């Protein structure tokens, strides 16, 4: 019973962090917060299907990384969130990766514009899946790929 309660609390904490991060990002991007006070920095990477930097083409991947400044007496940034959109001739596959303060994946969301039944939400604690929402077998099949992608995205940011 305690394990289930711990997981439910972890999921509540993850949802709260997700909402907080998205609120802060939206406020910074809409300039509701002055640039000096904005705790978020972001960069956008464009790749074509051959993994070469590109702003044009029929097939491209756009990765947006969001870092938060850490007030620890020195200029430090931690990766909080990554949005990835893979646009293949109009079919958009959207992914979101949410990280904790130690840059460990805690939440993953994906949506496919052509196959919406593959929309999935995955919640993680200590590198292990604690809950999935969406098509169960698909969610189970992608967990290891999601964890690997999350690590790759952190390594790209550092």
Description of the molecule:
The protein has helices spanning 2-29, 136-157, and strands at 40-48, 59-71, 75-88, 91-99, 105-112, 120-125, 128-134. With 158 residues, the chain is α+β, with helices and mostly antiparallel strands. The chain has one domain (2-157). Strands 1-2-3-4-5-6-7 form a seven-stranded antiparallel sheet, sandwiched between helices. Strand 2 and strand 3 form a beta hairpin. The longest helix is centred in the N-terminal third of the chain and has 28 residues, at 2-29. It is globular and about 40 Å long.
The residue-averaged pLDDT reads 81
Radius of gyration: 17 Å
Overall structural domain count: 1
Structural class: alpha+beta
Report on the biggest sheet: 7 strands, antiparallel
Number of separate strands: 7
The end-to-end distance, rounded to whole angstroms, is 39 Å
Order of helices and strands: HEEEEEEEH
**Number of helical stretches of at least 4 residues:** 2
Strand order of the largest sheet: 1-2-3-4-5-6-7
What percentage of the residues does DSSP assign to strands (E)? 35-45%
Inertia-based shape: globular
């Amino acid at each position: 019973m305690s394990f289930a309660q711990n997981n439910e609390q972890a999921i509540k904490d993850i949802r709260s962090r997700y909402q907080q991060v998205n609120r802060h990002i939206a406020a910074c991007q809409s300039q509701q917060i002055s640039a000096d006070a904005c705790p978020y920095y972001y960069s956008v990477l464009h790749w074509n299907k051959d993994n070469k930097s590109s702003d044009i083409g029929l097939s491209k991947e756009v990765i947006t990384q969001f870092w938060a400044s850490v007030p620890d007496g020195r200029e430090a940034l931690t990766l909080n969130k990554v949005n990835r959109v893979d646009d293949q001739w109009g079919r958009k596959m959207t992914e979101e990766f949410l990280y904790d303060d130690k840059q460990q994946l805690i939440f993953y969301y994906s949506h496919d514009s052509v196959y919406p039944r593959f929309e999935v939400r995955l919640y993680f604690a200590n590198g292990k899946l604690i809950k999935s929402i969406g098509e169960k077998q698909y969610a189970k099949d992608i967990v290891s790929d999601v964890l690997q992608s999350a690590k790759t995205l952190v390594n790209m940011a550092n």
